[in-house]
């Protein structure tokens, strides 16, 4: 009878071990997926920041162009009035 009990306990322990292994694999798989998604998101953020920096630079250049053209227009207008 004692051998039967030990075999039953071993079978239960093996079943529990298998369940724990399956849970571990599921968690590991999720972690890898989330890690991959995080890296992709970080790369996307970096790219968006780079594009934003370029756009801000372009905006500054356009503002400078507008200011220069306005100054030219004012100058020409004043010269034309004389």
UniProtKB/TrEMBL annotation:
Does this entry carry the keyword Transmembrane helix? no
Q: Which Pfam families match?
A: CFAP58_CC
Q: Where is the Cilia- and flagella-associated protein 58 central coiled coil domain?
A: 2-82
Q: Matching InterPro entries, A to Z?
A: CFAP58_CC (IPR049270)
Top-level taxon of origin: Eukaryota
Q: Which residues form a coiled coil?
A: 3-79
**Which keywords fit this entry according to its UniProt record?**
Coiled coil
By its UniProt entry, which PANTHER family does this protein fall under?
CILIA AND FLAGELLA-ASSOCIATED PROTEIN 58, CILIA AND FLAGELLA-ASSOCIATED PROTEIN 58-RELATED
Q: Identify this protein by name.
A: Cilia- and flagella-associated protein 58 central coiled coil domain-containing protein
């Amino acid at each position: 009878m004692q051998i039967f009990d030990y075999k039953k306990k071993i079978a239960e322990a093996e079943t529990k071990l298998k369940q724990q292994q399956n849970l571990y694999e599921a968690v590991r798989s999720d972690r890898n997926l989330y890690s991959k998604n995080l890296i992709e998101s970080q790369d996307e953020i970096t790219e968006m920041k780079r594009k934003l920096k370029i756009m801000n630079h372009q905006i500054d250049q356009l503002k400078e162009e507008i200011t220069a053209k306005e100054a030219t227009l004012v100058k020409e207008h004043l010269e034309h009035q004389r």
